[in-house]
Prior knowledge:
By secondary structure, the chain is of the alpha/beta class. The protein is about 55% helix and about 10% strand. The protein is globular.
Amino acid sequence: MGSTSNKCVCDSNLICFIYLQNSGEVSSNQSKVVYVLGGPGSGKSTQCSKIAKHLGFRHLSAGDLLEAEAESGSNDGKMIREYKKEGKLVPSEIIVKLLQKAMQESQNKNFVIDGFPRNEENLSAAENILKIEPNAVLVFDCSEEEMTRRILSRNQGRVDDKIDTIKKRLNVYSESTLPVINYYSSKGKVRKIDAGRPIEEVFDEIKGVFSELNAGQDLGRKESTSN
Ligand SMILES: Nc1ncnc2c1ncn2[C@@H]1O[C@H](COP(=O)(O)OP(=O)(O)O)[C@@H](O)[C@H]1O
Ligand SMILES: O=c1ccn([C@@H]2O[C@H](COP(=O)(O)OP(=O)(O)O)[C@@H](O)[C@H]2O)c(=O)[nH]1
Ligand SMILES: [Mg+2]
């Protein structure tokens, strides 16, 4: 678990590694990864679409990648459906494989990753297999009442948007995802966003965080290099 300056998600890992070791700076044209976490219905996918559209990052939604895999009728598809219906998290190897492929195939190497890593198993795979050290982790703070209200009016025909499954997903978030957030918080990477506000207000705050990142200010770099 090194600092951001020695991790890379681009295809030419070795070259990038040497460059970063020598430069000691995160260059503004270096690949960036921002994680977006928050409870179900907190607005992650809504804001990630805006980040992709207006800020030029490639949006990778873990939930959408799983849904596409389930739709494809592959061997993993049936299992993904069962986990999703129950509001449970699929085994890490499945989502990691999908993310790895999507990242490799993308021309755009600046990624906003929506809804991953969601538990400690995901976190370990993100660090050790995907080799991602995020530049920032946005955490959407929203009340359970508001998240539930939003999901129940989302109307996307999702099998998991039913009250019983919503309750299970909220529990998974508190029990499994909050420890991941605490881990990144201890590294100074977390930016908490008040996601209970209207969509444009939330996005205005997010734009500020991305301005810092584009200026080469890696959130948490002070903490990780000061000692
Ligand atoms: N800030 C907001 N205020 C009100 N409704 C919102 C807001 N952000 C998202 N929504 C709506 O709430 C629902 C859930 O948002 P979504 O982005 O799918 O959340 P998540 O990806 O976190 O589950 C969607 O119908 C979306 O249009
Ligand atoms: O890394 C992930 C991301 C998602 N999911 C599954 O996909 C569902 C939907 O995830 P999504 O991010 O679409 O839900 P959201 O939080 O946006 O409502 C989750 O409840 C899990 O069952 C998973 O297992 N691992
Ligand atoms: Mg979503």
